[in-house]
Write a structure and sequence with these properties.
alpha+beta; Jelly Rolls; seven-stranded antiparallel sheet; four-stranded antiparallel sheet; 13 strands; CHP02466
């Protein structure tokens, strides 16, 4: 008999390399990099486009078509059922050298995602964090000799992305981007909702 360790109630994060072909990535960068005219409130070197929908550009229609199967796959992990999914909104983020994205999560959605459109400096990968004020112990054991593992870590740095890669995560999950130590970093962010949720006959339908 051997001891067993169970990871209870894990939070899924889906990484899908190369979801977008290179020609589509280049077209998105060319089309949207000059349209990020909304300043970020926390970082002067970060700007965004207005909220977009797939109907705003044929490029985004193609993106939505490529992403929808991934949303259904990830949604089945969250809700235990293959549901219909739609992208509620998209926007492009342009992070210049020195810019950062403050810790945040996404309201009014269930799945959020990041599509990487340009190379990312290793020090500027997306970082996911535990929510503060959770149900963990109030005391901490934190010093140079501590071995960090999935059960005591407070943040997780996503793998090094390449242009065209996708990361999906539950919208409530806190995330941030450290100061950009490299060249201009462009990403396409998105929020998605299911067609409906059914709790023993009590159905909530989402439209838009």
């Amino acid at each position: 008999m051997h001891d067993e360790v169970f990871g209870l109630f894990p939070i899924p994060v889906l990484r899908a390399p190369g979801v977008l072909p290179h020609d589509l990535v280049r077209s998105l960068v060319t089309h949207f990099s000059s349209r990020t005219d909304l300043a970020n409130s926390s970082s002067p070197n970060l700007s965004h486009t207005a909220l977009l929908s797939p109907a705003d550009s044929p490029l985004l229609v193609t993106v939505a078509e490529l992403l929808t199967p991934k949303l259904a796959e990830f949604g089945a992990l969250l809700f235990g059922e293959a549901l219909g999914w739609s992208i509620k909104e998209m926007w492009v983020n342009l992070l210049e050298a020195g810019g950062r994205q403050a810790m945040h999560n996404h309201a009014n959605s269930f799945i959020s995602g990041v599509l990487y459109l340009t190379p990312t400096h290793p020090d500027s990968r997306t970082v996911f964090m535990k929510s503060p004020g959770g149900s963990e112990f109030s005391f901490k054991n934190d010093h140079a000799g501590v071995a960090t593992n999935p059960y005591n870590a407070e943040k997780w740095i996503s793998p090094q992305p390449e242009p065209g890669d996708l990361v999906l995560f539950p919208s409530y999950l806190l995330h941030a981007v450290p100061p950009n130590a490299g060249e201009r970093r462009i990403t396409l962010a998105l929020n998605a909702i299911p067609t409906q949720l059914d709790s023993w006959g009590y159905r909530i339908r989402f439209g838009g």
